[in-house]
Amino acid sequence: MSAPDFEALSVESATVHEQPSAWVRVRRNASVRIGGVAMLLLLLIALLAPWLGTVDPSLFDPASRDLLPGKLGEITTLEGETLQHRFLMGSDSFGRDIYSRVIYGTQVSLIVGLCTAVVSLAVGIVLGLLAGFFRRLDGPLMRLMDGLMAIPAILIAIALVAMWKGTLLTVVVAIAIPEIPRVTRLVRSLVLSIREEPYVEAAISLGTPTWKIMGRHILPNCVAPLVVQGTFICASGILTEAILSFLGVGLPPDIPTWGNVMAEGRAQFNEYPHNIFFPGIFLAVTVLAVNILGDGLRDTLDPKMAKRG
Amino acid sequence: MNTDAPILQVEDLTIALPSGGDRATAVRNVSFSVGRGEILCLVGESGSGKSVIAQGVMGLLPKSLPVQSGRILLQGEDITHAPLSRLRELRATRMSMIFQEPMTALNPVMTCGDQIDEVLRQHTRLSPAERRDKVLAIVREVLLPDPERMVASYPHQLSGGQRQRIMIAMALVLDPVLLIADEPTTALDVTTQAQILKLVLDLQHRHGAGVLFITHDFGVVAEVAHRVAVLRLGDLVEVGSKHDVLQRPQHDYTRMLMAAVPTLHLKQRPNDPDAPVVLQVRGLAKTYEDKRWFGPHRTVHAAQDVNFEIRRGQTLGIVGESGSGKSTVARCIVRLVDPSAGSVQLGGGAAKGLPAQDIAMMSASQLRPLRRRVQIVFQDPYRSLNPRRNVADAMVEGPMNYGLGRAEALQRARQLLAMVRLPESALERYPHQFSGGQRQRICIARALMMEPELLVADEAVSALDVSVQAQVLDLFEEIRSRLNLAMLFITHDLRVASQVCDQLAVMSKGQVVEYGPAHQVFGSPQHAYTRALFAAAPGRDFAFGQ
């Protein structure tokens, strides 16, 4: 029998095909598109706030108190000038323009959401890498994280803001700290499974130093689940900031945030529901958009997590 | 009913694949039949569509794989598009299936007895006492020891072979006319596989069922088949009696497969007994201790008192079943795990003017300069390369760790890619763009980048299809002789071992039970375990493609 041509007949040369790259899959995903477009719109609103027919959100005019949405009224600038202004979303009991406050509030919410995600991811990644890679640190670090997780997130945040002054930085830190244990746990579990992968063992036998193994082989393979986790933290950060403001322990009431606007309108909710309705809509849409984006990213970047549902 | 009529007829079956796949159909115009009391082996490499056919017959195809055309007849009844209610009646009573992985095919929260009983409850009106008798009878028939205890056990309490027996009992309890076995022994050790194959043969003979037996292992085919059907990428390329297909294959593809099946005949090769010793292992042991705060301490001796040596240009094979400690030994030598005792002398540096060094107990910093002298190739080509780094980055990583410039490293990478017969353009590509065999070539090239003295191959060809396996084995041989390397070849497959090894160590339960020149171990095995292992090798007396 003549020797047959292995290479030509072999099945496997015929079975390899190019998969679309992760980026292409992400762009094709409907959830990513919907969530992404919504987030882009919100970002534009935040950036263009001064040019969207708004007035300074801290301006008030006692003559224009409790106006219904769409009513025309007047508003006094800091220079003492009186302007005619249409209150698209009505005004509150101080006579401030709710539309302007909600639009400017978008800035605060997005900054808080993004910064919380970045801060908690950054700290969580470092702690998670340490816990996953160094056995001695694992026990103490993770017990600390367990302890942190045992306290309700909102309580820690309230306590921290109460301890410090209510500034943007303290609010971000206060919201980020309770999220850190979750990121740490995720990173640690990823590190523990990835470090057993043969390609990591191959790197060890190729003499690659530990810190390079972390940076080259382990961290890049954690990116997808971390991006997904980041979006969820962003959403919950926005929500927590609104809750803190609503409870009066967040940013000072003169700073326009959705939570502050809602807190303002709470007393008169029965007569003037628009005070709460409009910021509530914005808050819900933003959180929904971030979550839809996160779901889409999870489905495309991290199929394993998607299956677990 | 006509007893000569085939039990299963598959006519012109075409099953579509979802669009965007690498081909349009999972199987195309496939026709075959299984007669009463006949075992038809459906063989093919991965992606050939053999499991899809099994799922099609059982009506288990996912919606994304619709039957496009053709018919499936069970005892003359067209079940191609039978409603679910009819299929449910037929399953277990007329046709049943056993799967590859009995642990996942059984429900982990039900006792084995309850799971067999469930089949009877669904399909018969027997009283509980009658059902229990029947369950015990079938458990006895699949030769499980202590049936009373077995039916009360949960799947995790049984061994892999016992679980597969439970699956078989479940499949046969209602005496179906057709049994579909989808790679039923692939997850089992070779000695267990031999017992399960014998059991399937016995039961099939006794019950007279037709069997559709799906496998990728030609040794198994040689053991069980009456007739053989060969699939290639969804096309049925050849059907015929076992002897015709395995020994006088007609189609080029089948001939290629037969030529690729490793034989159990040792290859004669030059052997220099005075070559310098590259690796000397003395009294190597690895003990895992499970220290708990409460409860007893457990110690597991993964490897005990292992001794061997490898000379330059020679290959030592370590064979054994799962859990025998062969991989532990390999990992101790590469120092991916720290040995508990013994010495691993890395010598053979005489030519390079280096003294022998014992790396067994070295600290990480002492070990670093020596790591390059021992390199390893792993089993799973899909997980051996970092998916986020391209081939060039993977290959230059090691040499650059030891101070080589990127340009020179890339130069060496190009030469080595040529040696493993991959194009230079591979450097720019990412692992997911390669097939399993190509990835394994890249892994070999990556290991060779370090210019090691010893290459460890830990089941490096076990995950590959038979034709690819043959190519990679040839590559290992070529590299060993061209570079005059010492090789440690870990495998569970005796056929593979017989192709590449000069020396052979047989491991069982953490100990080397037999060690010597390969021809001696193969020719006159001394230890009872070695003899059992050889006797269990499927199709050992069968001459493929002769």
List the helices and strands and how they pair.
The complex is a heterodimer of chains A (309) and B (546).
Chain A: H1 6-9, H2 12-15, H3 22-28, H4 30-47, E1 71-76, E2 82-87, H5 98-133, H6 135-150, H7 153-163, H8 168-194, H9 198-205, H10 210-218, H11 223-247, H12 258-266, H13 274-301, H14 303-308
Antiparallel strand pairs in A: 1-2
Chain B: E1 8-16, E2 25-34, E3 39-43, H1 50-58, E4 67-74, E5 77-78, H2 84-90, E6 95-98, H3 102-105, H4 112-123, H5 128-141, H6 147-151, H7 160-172, E7 178-182, H8 190-207, E8 210-215, H9 218-224, E9 227-232, E10 235-241, H10 242-247, H11 252-260, E11 277-290, E12 298-311, E13 315-319, H12 326-333, E14 341-346, E15 357-358, H13 364-371, E16 374-377, H14 391-401, H15 406-419, H16 436-448, E17 454-458, H17 466-483, E18 486-491, H18 494-500, E19 503-508, E20 511-517, H19 518-523, H20 528-536
Parallel strand pairs in B: 3-8, 3-9, 6-7, 7-8, 13-18, 13-19, 16-17, 17-18
Antiparallel strand pairs in B: 1-2, 1-4, 4-5, 9-10, 11-12, 11-14, 14-15, 19-20
Helix pairs in contact in B: 4-5, 5-7, 7-8, 8-20, 11-17, 14-15, 14-16, 15-16, 16-17
